[in-house]
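Exercise 7 asks you to align residues with tokens for two separate proteins.
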Amino acid sequence: MISNPNLNPEYIDVVVLCGGLGTRLKKVVSDRPKVMAEVNNKPFLEILIDYIAVFGFRRFVMCVGYMKEKIREHFERRKDVEILFSAEEELLGTAGAIKNAEKFIRSNPFLVVNGDSFCRINVKGFLDFHITKKAYASIALVLPEKDADYGVVAIGDDQRILSFNEKREPDTGGFINAGMYFFNRDILKLIPENITYSLEYNLFPHIIDKGIYGYVTGEKLIDIGTPERYRKAEEILNKKI
């Protein structure tokens, strides 16, 4: 139970990473940024925002870059949630984009989500987990599917993350990073300004001893990074929306 009212979802900032080029998806979605690819006649990014808002989150900071005007034009009309735009003039990577948005991030902790992936986790439960564990950072984790080409995360019995392995060997177990994170605001001090910097490759390996925990869910990870995954996302989300 969260006793501090400032730790209720309505006061927690949600940083959405949606500035990538989406190179692999351009064969089928070329007239808009990847996150605006439509599923059931609705932009994928809007499905993600709507889902997170169900849990009471109301303030979203969109880290935009490639074709940012398309995202701004669509979302600046929304009145039910507050949406701010942190624009990149050049690609800064996942961590670099967060650092670029620092001036908009008010809450401690804050939530970060990939704009091109979706997982039906209990986001409020994830927040409670982060606070209960007194974690420096928390990462939502899912079980890998057969032949998945994602890296894997190993955790201990207390759900503390032990290692990150970017190449998964068959039948080695481990979990998949679902692209949803809670970070303490202090983490922003560790990200350099104005350079390309990755969460997965640059930041996480350097903070593993600070207390990163894995919030494990049985839900599936849906992403639209390739034409094949986009088609699969359409099939899954069309059944559930």
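Second protein for Exercise 7:
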Amino acid sequence: MIDDLKSIAIFATVIEQGSFRGAARKLNLSPSVISYHIAELEKKLDTALLYRSTRKLSLTSQGEALQKVSKNMLEIVEEGLLSITEQSDTLRGKITISLPTALTRSDYTRALASFCQRHPHLEVNILYSDVFENLIEKSIDLAIRVGTLPSSDLKSRRLGQITRRLVCTKQFVAQYTPISQPHALSQVPWIKLTSLPAKRTLTHPVFGRVDVEFPHQISVNSVEGMTQLCIDGLGVATPPTYLVENFLEDGTLVELLPEWRVSPIPVFAIWPNNAMKKSATMRLVAHLAKAIT
């Protein structure tokens, strides 16, 4: 079937150019290749399509019928290609995006929402998951990942970072010796995030950097779950700032060692390396980079 379509396209070009040589020049093929495809097409259809002379070509009645078919076919193909590669603001088709559940209530989701509103003809499939799926195997066009990226053939762009706060409830911290230095954090229970080690790095503008290893009874595989368990008074945690700002303001949570900062986590967009510059994927990467900055 593919060879037939190619032969029909070559046939249409021969008619358009008026000669085998003209078609060969336009298609960057040799005249012998052009002749071969026309002969194969005539053989398959069991009919002559062209009358050839040294000076001109003319169509048989069957050739005239095929000319109409080939013209319609090429017009449909050209329209289809134009709709895919159109460089206007109108995006069509479908795009699948993966991002961790921790970003559900973040600026990244708000940026995705504004992108969807801007391109109402684009079908957008958003997957919130803490499983790092294989983009190629799962047909994912773009993924947002947090933390250090493993080595791969995927393309990437850093979008920003997630700031975190060292928090717990007043009732919880009241059970322990007052925490005035980072080393005291190793004496109180934490809520551990499954994907991260039982260690956090804190930085101070004067005292520098300190690594704190902590004990834990509870591990959880969700940042939102970790945050809620912290609100429920089960331990110290380091959730993203955007998840706990309101709870710090109303006193539900308190910030421990506010002069110390938990190391932020970098956020990246990653995508298959064959994404085209004008594709929805690359337009979304540019949108996210601008919206988050």
